[in-house]
Structures are given as structure tokens and as C-alpha cells.
Specification:
The chain has two helices and 48 strands. It is mostly beta strands. The protein is elongated, with a radius of gyration of 66 Å.
Length: 688
């Protein structure tokens, strides 16, 4: 060995520059070729070991590359060199060749040098060094088949032991390593370890054991599947010639039955005597296909099971009915497959209450791995209502009158309810009476209360406003809605004729004077018209504030605006009785007062005036003695002609006398003259 060391020391200065120069040349010509090769080669006695040099054509043209040996130490030889290959641009070529050691070669390490040249440029000359070791032949063998499999259980540390034999003729320092693509934790159970490798020294023809362990993880989300698992490869590297012996084994997961409740709604609110459902998601988290056993258990508020309601897919307790929907047990679930089930609740017809339920699930064949989750259903009563009213009912009222309003209410809650009305407030002097009866109503039902009676005040001005707030109460006394009733006092049109004075002059002119009073409840105006039963001259003498047609000599109508309440005014009219009639008669004169607020409402006062026909009119120009014969004849003629008239006049006088007496009595009682409110026809005022 000393002489070998001396040779290396002597040759090192010589070889060093030889190595450095191609390196520099490679830097200069790095745009033409690039090369790489293994630095270590193991060869046994009387054996040819294969090796290679890879060359990359980095130029943009074809090159012919030649690889040849520069120095080959004795007793080594090369096989397959020199070699020349053509490389296209940007392509790689691997020059494979062999290194052979004779049968009597010494066990040592020697350095071989190789040259790489190009036909493009003679200056291109890359040099590659390769250390070749002549080593003894190793022979390591594991004592079992190349492959084995083991069934393991989750969360169990599994110990693995395998024997290995050194069948070589030399002592071998063996290095062990373990590889797996999984993330399962493992380790060595051996005295000599360093990180992830273990060591042992084996004498020739000796046997040793390799001990290791693997931690099997739990089955999560159905993985690993039953009878599947990771593969482990145990490698033994010889210290003699770096030869690798391997042994492979699989760890197969045993069947695991398990289930999970991934989701369960925490609570459910239902209306009285109504049903509802909540969802639950259950999953097969075992590693094999399986079915699930699903039941429901009623619970007391303290969490203890209800004795009269054993676990089942349906039970009843305290008026509640609880049932499982979609919980059939014959549905096969694959590993990590889930399904949705529903839990239905039918509540009793109570306003308060709750039921606690526990969902129980286990995978078939594994009742010990049962999973549970709890939920609760609670009765929530919603009391609400919606009231409505016809806005036109009682919107306009006459003073001192009553009317009815119909209030309709709908039960918008989720349970039956008894609704009543209550008056909250009323303005404007109105009196509102609400019915005391209550209405029992189911959810969504509409009913109408008995009428609400509204009374208007006796003394109220027209167009004065009022309102009333009416509340709707539920059976707990809470206000669930409110309606506002709005009222308006309608105008009362009432005009009274007072102090009527009628005078007939000797010239046949009837003069009428009357006073009209506003006895209504609103400021009003008048349209006054004068009409006669005969075509005669007539007209008004309007008051100063009257409006009438300009330029008319004898106005027969006029208007008065804005007459206040309880105010009166006086107007006059005249009528010229006819003087040219052939018979006696009576003229009827209607004085019509028409309201401007309500033109369809009018009041009529009828005046009368008697006239004489021409034959019975005296001639004021006749002056002389008395013609007693003529007077007698005239008297006879008058008696014959007017007998019936005289009888009628006598009867009419009696009636008039009676009317005058009654008139005085009424004046004493009411202090007003009679008037008539005409709707369709006008009758003789004197006949009333």
C-alpha cells in the first residue's frame, strides 16, 4: 500500500495540469459540447463492469463526437473504446463501454482518464476522470421470499423482523434503509442506527436479523380500505461492493366498521299542532361497504331516556310524535359514503312544550362503536293578526246619527286564537262602541266582528273631523293589530222661513216680505227663485249683498253667498195680479230657496193672491144715481153665477179660520212659519 501511495503522490502534479487544462478548454468551448459520467465504478475480479459517458451537443450544427481512453491503469482494460457517434444539435448521446479486471487483480482503487473530442473544432477536448475500484464479490440474501404481506389493525404498532445471510467469503459491513411512499411512521429496533439507516457487521456465512416497527394509523374517512395498505422496501447495501439486496412487504389494513354523524340540526321550532323536519347526515367511515343501524331515543330534559319510549324509528310521548324518514337499514354505503336522513316532529296542540331526541347510529356488526347526537324540537306559538275595514263606512255622518263599521280580521299566526276588539282612543266628540264578543279563529282564517257602532255628536259643525283607534287583542291580551276609523260630519242643509208678510194693494199688487234663517250646520249660500202660476209681472227686491243678472228690470232670481250659521236675512218680492181675466182666480207664487252646498236640496214657500175677473171689477169712472133695478138684476146674476163660489168661499173661510188658529198655536210653540221641503211636486202651502 505504501508504494501505491507514493505512485499517487508522484503522478498527482502531472495529472493535475492535465485535468485542469481540459476544464479550461471546456469553459472556452462550453457552447459546443457538455459531458457527464459516474465518478465511481465497482468491478469484480474476472468481470467486466459496464459504465458510460453522456455527451450533450450544445452547438447548433451536427457534430461527430469521439470518446477514447487517455490512461488506463494496469491491470484494467476498457471494452468498446474508442467510440465515435454523430450528435444532432441539442441532443444527448450515451457512450457505453466496459471496464474489465483480470482474475488476479488486486483489491484497490485506480483512476481512469477519458478524452472527448469533436470534429468541428480540434481545440475541443474534454477530459473525464473515473475512479474504478476492484472489490470483493458480496453475497447478501434475505431469508424469505422477495415479497410478503401482513394484515394489520389500526392504531397498533406492528413489529417486523426478517433474517439476512452473508454468503460471501469476506466480512461485510451492511447498511439497512427502508423506503415507503406512505406517511406511516416507522423505526428500527436495532442497536446500531444513525437517522434513518441501521448498521450491522456480518462475518462470512453468518445470519443476522433486521428488526423494525411500523405504527399503523387509524382508519379515517374510510381509508385505508380493507385489505389495502402501503408497500415498504427494505434495502441492504454491502460495504464490500455497494451491491443492494431488497425485500418488499405490504401492510394490509384489517376490516374496520365505523360510522359518524357529520351533521344534525341542533334544534327545530314548530307551531302548535304542526309538523316539521330537520336533517341529519350520517357516513360510513369504515373501510369496507356496510349498512347502518339508525334509531331514535326520546329523552327527558335531564338527558335520561324516556321510559315509555324505547329506541325505535318512531315513538310518541306527551302528545309528540317523532319519526325517522329515509332511515332504511338495507341501504349499503361504500367507505366514506354518506346519506341524509330526516327526523320528523308532530307537535301537540299546545302553546308551549319541547321534546328532546337522541339520534343513535352504528355500523352493522359494530354496535359497540355506536355514535349519538342530540337535538330538540320546541313549540313556538306566533300570535299575529291583520285587521281591515271598509274606508267608506261611516266616513261621512250627519250630526246626532249612528252608523255601523264592519271590521274583518285574519289570523296570521300559526295557532288558533281568540281575538277581541278594544277601543283605544276617539277624537272629535264621536262615540264608538265595540262589540265585546271574541272570535275563535284557526290559522289563516278570516272573520268579521259584529258591527262597531259609531255615534256622531249632536252639535257638530259640518266637515269637522274625528277618528277612533280600535285595537285587536289576542287571547293573552297583547295588541296584534290596530285599525283607524276616520269620520267627517256631513253638512246639514236647513233653511227656515220666518216672519212672512204678504200684502195685497188695491191695485192688485201682492207684496211679499220674508226672513230666511240658516239653521243648518255649515256656512251656506242660496239661490232664490220666484215662480208664478200665471204669466204676470213680478220680481225680487234683492238685499244689498245679493248677486243677480245685470240689466234685468225685474229680477226673478238672485244669489247670496256665505251665510253663517244661525244667520238670517230678509228679502222682498212683488207680484202684479192679473186684471184682464174673464173669471175670478188665484195666483200661486212659489219662492224657492236652493242650497249652494247641496243644489239638489231646496225649500219652497208658497204665497197666494186672489183676483177678480173683468166682469166683477168695479168701474171707478162710473158716477151717478143708483139704479136699483140694475142692482137687483146684477145681484140675481151674481147669485146665480157665484152661488157655488160663495159656498166655496164660506167653506174656505172656515178652513182659513181654523188654519189661522193653528198657525198662532204653532207660532207660540216653534216661533216659525210653516215651510215645505219639496222633493218631487209642490203642493198648496195653505192646504197643509
Amino acid at each position: 500500500m505504501r508504494w501505491l501511495l507514493l505512485i499517487v503522490v508522484v503522478l498527482l502534479p502531472v495529472v493535475g495540469p492535465a485535468i485542469a487544462t481540459p476544464s479550461d478548454a471546456g469553459g472556452r468551448n462550453q457552447d459546443l459540447i457538455d459531458c457527464s459520467a459516474p465518478t465511481e465504478v465497482i468491478v469484480h475480479r474476472d468481470e467486466t463492469a459496464g459504465t458510460y459517458i453522456t455527451v450533450h451537443n450544445t452547438a447548433d450544427v451536427n457534430q461527430r463526437i469521439t470518446v477514447q481512453a487517455l490512461s488506463v491503469p494496469e491491470p484494467l482494460t476498457t471494452v468498446g473504446l474508442p467510440a465515435t457517434l454523430e450528435l444532432v444539435p441539442n441532443h444527448l448521446k450515451q457512450f457505453s463501454f466496459g471496464v474489465r479486471a483480470p482474475a488476479d487483480a488486486a483489491f484497490q482503487t485506480m483512476t481512469m482518464t477519458f478524452s472527448i473530442t469533436s470534429d468541428m473544432n480540434s481545440d475541443v477536448n474534454e477530459t473525464v476522470l473515473m475512479n474504478v475500484t476492484v472489490a470483493p464479490q458480496s453475497n447478501l440474501n434475505f431469508g424469505v421470499d422477495d415479497f410478503a404481506s401482513f394484515t394489520v389493525d389500526e392504531t397498533v404498532r406492528t413489529a417486523v423482523a426478517v433474517n439476512i445471510t452473508n454468503n460471501a467469503s469476506f466480512t461485510d459491513d451492511v447498511t439497512f434503509s427502508l423506503y415507503s411512499a406512505s406517511s406511516w411512521a416507522w423505526g428500527w429496533s436495532m442497536p446500531l442506527t444513525a437517522g434513518e439507516v441501521a448498521y450491522t457487521t456480518m462475518a462470512p456465512d453468518s445470519l443476522s436479523y433486521v428488526y423494525l416497527w411500523v405504527d399503523v394509523p387509524p382508519v379515517l374517512d374510510g381509508a385505508p380500505l380493507a385489505q389495502t395498505g402501503p408497500r415498504f422496501t427494505l434495502s441492504a447495501v454491502s460495504g464490500l461492493d455497494n451491491a443492494v439486496s431488497t425485500w418488499t412487504f405490504d401492510l394490509l389494513m384489517n376490516e374496520k366498521k365505523n360510522v359518524s354523524i357529520d351533521q344534525l340540526d341542533a334544534s327545530l321550532t314548530v307551531a302548535p299542532n304542526q309538523d316539521g323536519r330537520l336533517n341529519a347526515v350520517v357516513r360510513n367511515v369504515g373501510n369496507a361497504p356496510n349498512t347502518l343501524n339508525i334509531t331514535l331515543q326520546g329523552l327527558n330534559p335531564d338527558g335520561t331516556p324516556i321510559l315509555d319510549a324505547p329506541a325505535s324509528d318512531r315513538f310518541s310521548s306527551n302528545g309528540w310524535v317523532v319519526a325517522l324518514f329515509g332511515g332504511l337499514e338495507n341501504i349499503l354505503l361504500q367507505p366514506n359514503e354518506s346519506r341524509v336522513i330526516e327526523i320528523g316532529f308532530q307537535s301537540p296542540n299546545d302553546f308551549v312544550g319541547e321534546i328532546h331526541v337522541e339520534l343513535r347510529v352504528f355500523a352493522s356488526g359494530a354496535p359497540a362503536a355506536e355514535r349519538t347526537a342530540r337535538t330538540v324540537a320546541t313549540i313556538e306559538r306566533i300570535s299575529s293578526a291583520s285587521a281591515s275595514v271598509n274606508a267608506n263606512e261611516c266616513s261621512t255622518m250627519m250630526p246626532n246619527t249612528s252608523c255601523q263599521v264592519n271590521i274583518t280580521v285574519e289570523n296570521t299566526g300559526n295557532a288558533y286564537n281568540t281575538l277581541v276588539l278594544r277601543q283605544k282612543s276617539t277624537t272629535g266628540g264621536f262615540n264608538v262602541g265595540v262589540p265585546s264578543v271574541g272570535l275563535v279563529m284557526q290559522p289563516g282564517e278570516s272573520k268579521t266582528f259584529p258591527p262597531v257602532v259609531v255615534s256622531a255628536p249632536q252639535e257638530a259643525a259640518a266637515f269637522s273631523l274625528g277618528s277612533s283607534a280600535v285595537e285587536v287583542l289576542d287571547d293573552t291580551g297583547d295588541v296584534v293589530d290596530e285599525v283607524i276609523l276616520e269620520f267627517t260630519i256631513a253638512p246639514v242643509i236647513k233653511w227656515t222661513f220666518r216672519n212672512v208678510d204678504e200684502e195685497l194693494s188695491v191695485k192688485g199688487r201682492l207684496s211679499i216680505a220674508m226672513e230666511v234663517r240658516n239653521d243648518g250646520n255649515a256656512m251656506d249660500g242660496l239661490v232664490v227663485q220666484l215662480q208664478s202660476s200665471h204669466a204676470v209681472d213680478m220680481g225680487f227686491i234683492p238685499p244689498e249683498s245679493a248677486l243677480f243678472e245685470e240689466g234685468v228690470e225685474f229680477p226673478r232670481s238672485f244669489e247670496i253667498n256665505d251665510v253663517p250659521l244661525n244667520a238670517n236675512f230678509t228679502f222682498r218680492a212683488w207680484v202684479q195680479l192679473p186684471q184682464d181675466q174673464t173669471s175670478n182666480g188665484t195666483v200661486y207664487v212659489n219662492t224657492t230657496v236652493r242650497s249652494k252646498l247641496a243644489p239638489d236640496t231646496f225649500f219652497v214657500h208658497t204665497s197666494t193672491g186672489d183676483y177678480l175677473g173683468v166682469p166683477w171689477q168695479s168701474d171707478p169712472e162710473e158716477q151717478g144715481g143708483l139704479d136699483w133695478g140694475g142692482m137687483a138684476n146684477t145681484a140675481i146674476l151674481y147669485a146665480r153665477a157665484w152661488g157655488g163660489v160663495i159656498a166655496s168661499v164660506v167653506l174656505a173661510s172656515l178652513i182659513l179660520y181654523k188654519a189661522v188658529v193653528d198657525r198662532k198655536r204653532r207660532q207660540e210653540r216653534a216661533s216659525i212659519l210653516p215651510y215645505q221641503e219639496v222633493q218631487e211636486t209642490s203642493d198648496d202651502w195653505m192646504s197643509r
